[in-house]
Every structure is written in C-alpha cells, then in structure tokens.
Amino acid sequence: MASTAHKPWPRVFARIFACGALLIGLGSIAVFEVRRLDQLTRLEADKAAVVSAQVNLFNDVLHRLRGDLLILSGQSELDALHPDAKDLSDLAREYAEFVRALGLYDAIRLIGVDGRQLIQILNGESGEVHVAVDLPGDRFRDTLALERARSAPGGMLMQNDVKRTAGAPHPAMRFAITTPAAERGERKMIELVYRADTLFARILQYALRSNTTTILLTHDGYWRSEDDRDPHSWYYYDLASGAAPLALAYPEAWQKISEGESGTIRIANGFFVFRTVHPAIKGFWGLEKNIPGGPTPEAPEWRVISFVSPETTATLEGRILEFLVPSTLAALLTWGLLSWSFSVYWSNHRRRQARLLHQATTDPLTGALNRAAFDERLRAALARFAETGESCAVVFIDLDRFKAINDTYGHDAGDACLRETVARIRAAIRDDDIVGRIGGDEFAVVLSPIKGRDAALAVQGKIAAKLISAPAPYGNTDEPIHASIGLAVCPADGTTAEMLLRTADKDMYGAKRRRAPHAYPEDFSV
To answer: CA-CA distances (angstroms) from residue 125 to 64, 130, 165?
Structure first.
C-alpha cells in the first residue's frame, strides 16, 4: 500500500491564507460600515445641534427687532406729531441716534398714510448717518405696505430685500409696524431696514465651527453665501425664476424641505438637516412684493438648512480608510506570516506522521501491508459487510520453492523475488484492494467489495497469470514466479478474519498438494 498522501505546504498555505484573508476583508468592510454609519450619525446629530442653535439665534433677533419696533411705535412724540419741519427734525435726530447707537439698521422711515416719507434715516457704508425729512412717497411698495400693515394682526410686516449701496449688495429685511390711531394725528407706519448680513454672519459662525454649509431658505427664495467661508458675501436667489441652485441640483430634496417643518433629507452620499423659523410667532406677517389688490398678508417662513455634501461624506470616508487600509494590510501581512509558519509546520508534521504510519503498517522490503495492518484492514472490510452487505474475499498466495531460490541465488535474489511478487499482484488487482505480507514468502489479498465467488475466482486467475507472465527477477533463467493460491469468500467461507484466512490457507495447501512432483525442475541452474 502506498504511503498516506499529504498536502505540500504551499497548498496548505494558500487555503489557510485565503480563508483568513476573506475573513479579514469582510471584517474590514464591516468595521468600515460601522464606523461610517457611526460618524454619519454623529455628524447628523452635530448638524442638528448647529441648526437648532441657528434657529434660536434667528428667533432671538426677531424678538429684539419686534421690541425695537414696539419702542419706536410707542413714542409719545408720534401722537402729537405735526408735519412741520421742526417736529420732524427733532424726531429725526432721535431716530438717527437710535440707528447710530445700535448699528444694526440700514434705514428707519416714518411713512404717512398717503405714502409720503416724513422721516428717512440712512446708515451709510462709511458709518455716517444721513437724515432727511418730508420726502415724497416715490415707491408703490410704501403705500401697499401701509395698507397691509393696517390689516395685519398687530400691524407688523416683514419682507426680504437686497440693500444696494456703493459697496457690494447685502441682504436686508424690511420690518414695518403701524402706529396706534391718535386723536389728533393719523395712523402712520414705521419701517426698519435691518442689516440681515449681521444676522447671517452670526449664524454662519456656528456653521464654520462645525465645518457646515448653511443655507437660509425663505418662502420665495433663499440666501446663500457665494463663498461659504466669507460671511459678507450673501446673495439672494429667487426660486420662482428657477435660478436657485438647491431647486435645480436637488429638486426632490427641495420639495421635501419646502413641505416639511424639520427633519433630515438624505441624498446620495449626503444629507440636509433643516428646521423652520416662523416669524409670525414673533408677531411679524409677510408682505408680497409688487402684487396689487387684496390686503391679506401671508405668513412668511424661513428654513435654516445645514448641508452635508457628497464631498464632505467622501472626506469622512477617506479619513476612515486612512486608518483602516494600513490596519488591514498589517493584518493581512501578519496573517500571511502566521499562515506560512503554520502550513510549513503542519506539512512537516503530516509528513512525519505519514512516514511513521507507513513504517508502522508497511513491510519495509516489499511495500505491502504488514500482518497487523493487514488484519486491521480485513476486519474493516468485514465490518462493512456486516453494515452494508458488501461481500469480500481473501486470496492467499504462497511462493513455491522459495528456500531453494535463497539457497541457489542468495538472499538478494529472494528479496527481489518478493518485491516482484508484490508488484505483479498489485498489477492484477484494483487500487482499492489490499495486499499484505503474512509470512516470509506468504501474501494475502483482500478483495472488497467483490460480487460473489465467480468474480473472486476471476481475480485469483489474473493473479496467477500475472505471476507467471514473465521470468523471475533473479539469475539467468526463464522460470516464472511459481506460487500456490487459495481463496475464501465471505460469507460462504466465514465471516471473521480468522475463518477466512484459515479457509484460504487450507485452499492454498490443497492447490499445492495437487501439483505433480515434477512440476518444477530439480534445480535452477542455467
């Protein structure tokens, strides 16, 4: 029987390393996904906190603006005001001091019921305050605003605007309130033009600390900094004109944002976090621009949006990969070294085991199984018969006149004859059949499975024919290898190893006795 096969270490290494590399790869992917989701969750929570802080700031500013309007509209001078130059000049100086002290407003206007601008205070780009009184109402929006202010609850109005001066245009918000009806005077309107870039700059500071892109969306358009790092470069886009990048670039997200109150809108590899600001809650109502007729005001809405772009998400994933890729490569290298060491050790160990097993079970001269190993294999064949009913047979082979070969040609010739005998027996049987050396010149074969005695007899005949098919491998003789062969078939001749071997041995001796005394030459000389 051939020695037990073992896998060389490169094959063992390849299989172990491939399995480990697959696990490391899957583990790295899982770690990447877990860390990515964790980072995105943290990022979303951070952006939600930023948006909440920005909304609170927005509401605080609205609250202060409402307070300023109430202070201005509640002045006692307005109740006794007559449209003459002296009265207007005194009140104009107070308004100018108010603008100069706060530094938050581009303009204050006191507008009469006929739309005439009784007082106009302008805050110039260089810091000087320009005062003018008794100016004609040259804009339709003033008279329309007055009509809307009269019909609005609380009399307060709010409108977005762009302040254009000698410098760059900047965002502004117009706030208006009607004065209470006086006994001696007519109802008037006070308008504040608030420098919205001041509010936007403060809102953007929250965003810059958390690396957030902020968008301020109104009910009819939105403000956004052309350069997100420059808080003084805000511009207004009109959504109705289709020029707004948000509506064009992310129409589905824009639709959900415009219809929602707050939440997170996810896009491919990015998301929007938004909350809605309701100025009407602070007492302000909206004003449609240049739309004649109908005094019904609208309730304006602002949405503060934090935008995490796909580029930001890609940067976040890149930082995770910067840590994970070296770790994965290091793990693969370490696993490769461990796999190589183990595979070499295991292959050598298996080789030693196979060699020891071969030595323990194999006849060292012929390579056939020794008696103990043969008996074990025969019992295994009988156990299969008991379990499955597969029949087996034992062929017993005894070399004739083997002592004469040793005496005539020497022990080397006898050894060569034994080796050749095993080789010829193996050539006549199947690979799964078993050859064992039972004694000095005695061999046995287990045929398992075998289909009855006729099949066993056929194999016995093939063995006999193979033995005499060529001259023996010793001396200069034409004599073949002569042997006596016996057969025992399970279960007819026995169901135990002892019974089968005894029956086969008996059958072999019967064959030997049946040979004629002159079957062999008297000597082996040439």
So the answer is: 23, 11, 7
Residue 396, pLDDT > 90, answer: yes
- Across the chain, what does the average pLDDT equal? 81
Extract the tokens encoding 236: 């207004």
**Distance between CA atoms of residues 246 and 252, nearest Å:** 10
Q: What is the pLDDT of residues 142-188, one digit of tens each?
A: 555 666 655 555 567 777 777 665 556 677 888 888 877 655 556 77
CA triple 181-183-185, angle to 5 deg: 70
pLDDT digits (tens, 9 = 90+) for 193-239: 888 888 888 888 887 777 778 888 876 666 665 444 454 456 555 54
- Residue 58 vs residues 3, 66, 237, 475: alpha-carbon distances, Å: 86, 12, 20, 115
**Residue 210 near residue 54, CB atoms below 8 Å:** no
Decide if 472 contacts 495 (C-beta within 8 A): no
Match 């022990």 to its residue by tokens.
411
Region 80-89: what's the mean pLDDT? Answer: 64
- The residues near 286 (Cβ < 8 Å, ≥ 6 apart) are 157, 158, 159, 219, 279, 280, 297, 298, 299, 300
Q: How far apart are CA 265 and CA 274, in angstroms?
A: 8
Q: Any idea where the domains of the chain sit in the sequence?
A: 362-514
Tens digit of each residue's pLDDT (9 = 90 or more) over 258-303 = 888 999 999 888 899 999 998 888 888 776 554 455 445 667 788 8
Residue at token pair 């890609």: 314
Contacts of 241 (CB under 8 A, 6+ apart): none
Kindly report the pTM of this predicted structure: 0.62
Q: Other CB atoms closer than 10 Å to residue 121's CB: what's the count?
A: 26
285 with 299: CB under 8 angstroms?
Answer: yes
Structure tokens at 168: 């760059």
Question: What top-level class would CATH report for the domain 362-514?
Answer: alpha beta
Provide DSSP, 330-376: HHHHHHHHHHHHHHHHHHHHHHHHHHHHHHHHB-TTT-SB-HHHHHH
For residue 331, the Cα-to-chain-centroid distance in whole angstroms is 18
Question: 209-234 burial string, b = 16+ CB within 10 Å, else e?
Answer: eeebbbbbbbbbbbbbbeebeebebb
Locus of tokens 């100018």: 96
What CA–CA distance (Å, rounded) separates 138 from 290?
A: 14
Pairing of strands 213-218, 221-225: antiparallel
- Angle between the 411-428 and 452-467 helix axes, to the nearest 10 degrees? 140
